[in-house]
Amino acid sequence: MLFLLYFLIMGLSGILLNHPDLLHAFSVSDTLVPASHSLDNGRKMAIRDTIVAGDKVFLAGRAGVWQSNDQGRRFSLLEAGFPPSAYDRETHCLHYDDELNRLFAGTRRGLYVYSFDAANWRQVARGTVGNQAVVDLLKIANRLLVVTPGSIYATRLDQDEPLFLTLPLQFRQSDQPSGGSLVHFLLKVHDGSLFGIAGRLFVDMVGAILVFLCVTGLLYWLFPRPAGSLLKDRGKAMARWPYHQHLDIGIWMCTFLVIVTLSGTIIRPPFLRMIADTEVPAVLLRLGQGESWQPRIDKAAFAADKETLWLATRSGFFTAPADLSTPFDKTELPVPTTGMGTNVLEFISERELLIGSFRGLHLWDKQQGKVRQIDPGDSNKRNRSALLATAASRADRPR
Questions:
Q1: At what angle do helices 237-266 and 182-191 cross, to 10 degrees?
Q2: Is the bond preceding residue 270 a cis peptide, omega within 30 degrees?
Q3: What pLDDT sits at residue 259?
Q4: What is the dihedral sign for C-alpha 227, 233, 236, 240?
Q5: What's the pLDDT score for residue 23?
Q6: Taking a C-beta distance cutoff of 8 angstroms, is the pair 150, 313 a contact?
Q7: Are 264 and 249 a contacting pair, CB within 8 Å?
């Protein structure tokens, strides 16, 4: 009974979180957010991307997009025309088009462009990108590539009204991994997506049953058997029904309740660290999917010297010519990543690729084939130089 209220909240919130489209337009006051989740000093993904262009500095993160015109001394929020809800305004990436003086922002729900002349945002690529999450923006020659977890779109940057086309993505089916992350598998078990929409609806039913058991359990506690007998004597069959069903439904659904509850518990700290490196057969992650395989894209990068497009996915790293004339080939990199994906993928020079995940920040020298981890607290001069080189490269070129 001590945990009944907690279980009730978990059942109700779990159903809603399993369908974010029902909630994305609603926000709550900052005062209701615990201090441990406050967005300050870059914590909790408060800052996801930065652009330095002369005296202008742009920051993107969970709160939206901020601009400074005095080299970062003061910032103002660019919010006119941006999504009003906190969920929708979370921004993953930016690209500043200095030729037409506009700013592109890839958000959790689509692509937006800011006109400095009109001083407002507007959503673009509704017919292609739509409300998909945009995970990266890349400039290649005179084209802007918009990368989502499952697709890549392109437009010419010399157009006042950008027209986006879908680029064909090809992956060799032989590159399908034999194993997948246990964390990812348990997440798909917990939300039911392992079996598509049918699985999600079944997990919703499990959540509804958890709520039903909590409510009827509370009734049993408040009105024990004598009260139940009184109801029976009065012939109120509808009132007696929850009492009769509490035990029967609880027994039949016990296994599913345990599976959903334990899978949700294990993918959270401190248990998450224990299973971070554990894999399961990849076939378990493809249940309910079609025959064609394509990895989920986390980040993208462009190697100008080789005219090559790099993708960081949940199934590893892939490369292909920038014109996508041939399928992506899997490229093995000696860089540790996690099942939660890659957060940083960027060439800071022609030979050095910066890769970041929850395993840390690593610099890969593709000519020497060596990897070194960058630790901001390390006194090693090479690490400090790498950090300075990274900052300088980002400041010298608008993205």
A1: 170
A2: yes
A3: 95
A4: positive
A5: 87
A6: no
A7: no
